[in-house]
Amino acid sequence: MKDHEIFSGLITTVPFILRLDGRSFHHLSHDAGYDKPYDTAFSGSMVKTAQALLADSGFAPSFAYTFSDEISLYLTSPVFDCRVEKLVSVAAGFASSAFTLFSKARYPLSFDCRVVPIAEGQLATYLAWRQAEAWRNHINGYAHKLLMDTGLSATAAQRKLDGMKSSELHELAFSFGVNLAETPAWQRRGTAVYRAVQEKDGYNPVSRETVRVLRRVPVIDEDLPLFKTPEGASWLAARLSSAGADG
Predict the structure, then answer these.
(1) Could you read off the pLDDT tens digit of each residue along the chain, which spans 247 residues?
(2) φ, ψ for residue 74 (rounded to 5)?
(3) What are the φ/ψ torsions at residue 202 (nearest 5 degrees)?
(4) CA 50 to chain centre
(5) Which of 6, 17, 120, 142 is the most exposed place for a label (fewest CB within 10 A)?
(6) Contact predicate 181/219, CB 8 Å
(7) Among residues 26, 77, 74, which one has the least CA distance to residue 54?
């Protein structure tokens, strides 16, 4: 029966992205009573999951980016011999169990996962694409919530938003006194988790003295630049260099 495992030989090249998406998380949002359009507890659980994937999953990605119920991991070294089946199953399983624990959910939750091979130097382009999706989620989420606050049902509010341009959604939010450009940066642009070199206190057992040492530590960054800009690309290159990766 071994020859029936027809996808077991499918491999990816490096570098590559592992993108994880929460499955049916709208049910979780309803059952847990999360605030709309954004909930800090939910976002915090997603960031903790991304941090765990960075530090404890065995994948050792160089960079993680998350918004909404999505996490992207950037890997520059082979893991599990780059076997796609192994990569997606282990990543999805780890993220599912980690998020279930962090969110204190009353029932099991799941993520799906896909592999996205990219060429060296394409990470900024990929992140600009996902960040644009984060922005679309942002403006639609606020507009939908504001309309529901007037008494419309979720279906009626969405029907009213269908076909509206970004500029029109901006104007709609502004008419309710909400300036979308002044909402928290993590809502508009997402959150990154990466490693950075920091100086910390250490102990020299020979001299029995406290010494200053350099350590790579995880950093959670909620004030991201626009990755589509030259400034954003330079910011990313500096973080990847610090993490020991090539973007």
Answers:
(1) 878 787 888 999 999 999 999 998 888 887 888 999 999 999 999 999 999 999 999 999 999 999 999 999 999 999 999 999 999 999 999 999 999 999 999 889 999 999 999 999 999 999 999 999 999 999 999 999 999 999 999 999 999 999 999 999 999 999 999 999 999 999 999 999 999 876 667 767 777 777 665 677 889 999 999 999 999 999 999 999 877 665 5
(2) -105, 120
(3) -130, 180
(4) 7
(5) 6
(6) no
(7) 74
DSSP state of 109: -
* Bridge partners, 16 (sequence order): 75, 117
| Same domain assignment for residues 143 and 128 | no
Tokens of 127: 């992140």
Where in the sequence is the domain holding 101, given as residue range(s)? 1-138+185-247
Residue identified by tokens 């169990």 is: 97
Handedness of CA 38, 51, 123, 112 (dihedral sign): negative
* Whether 122 and 147 share a structural domain: no
CA distance 193 to 220: 5
Pair (234, 154) in one structural domain: no
> Terminal CA-to-CA distance of the chain, rounded, Å?
41
Statement to judge: residues 19 and 79 lie in one domain: yes
Residues 99 and 33 in one domain: yes
Final residue before a domain boundary, out of 165, 184, 203: 184
Q: For the chain, how many structural domains are there in total?
A: 2
CATH number (domain holding residue 191) = 3.30.70.3000
